[in-house]
Amino acid sequence: MEDIENKFPNSLKDVPVKLLKLISGESIIAYVHNDDKDTISLEEPMCLSYENEYQIVFTPYLPFSENVLHHIDIDNIMFESDVNVDIKAYYMKILLDQVEGIETPSLSPTIPIIKGTSTVH
Question: Which of 30, 56, 64, 65 meets the CB 3.0–4.6 Å disulfide criterion with 42?
């Protein structure tokens, strides 16, 4: 029997989660697949925003889309960067918790979250 080549990352550090800054001004964090020279595929993209200087908020980038994988033209990206391992772990936890139906707490445990009708305070 042939050995199956392991294509999965060995550690969280090796998972290809990137931070992308789009020319529209949005910051996106996503599992990235480099397809070719013209496009990048984003799996489970989330928009990154800051509530204040201590709290980061991840929201689904395309919340009403049926697809999990989205292709973006490379010309729409100003830059891409590797993500801090702590932020990468938090992003992966959000995705895994969504699968399990678990509500993810705030990234900053020292600041309480008060949910209003349309925003997080």
Answer: 30
In one-letter notation, the amino acid at residue 111 is: I
Span 12-100: which CATH code?
2.30.30.100
Most confident of 4-8, 40-44, 98-102: 40-44
The pTM for the full model equals 0.71
pLDDT digits (tens, 9 = 90+) for 31-67: 998 767 889 999 999 998 888 877 888 888 988 988 8
- Helix residue spans in 69-115 (DSSP H): 85-100
Q: Taking the domains of the chain in order of start, what are their residue ranges? A: 12-100
Structure tokens of 24?
A: 């529209």
- Contact criterion met (CB below 8 Å) for 27 and 20: yes
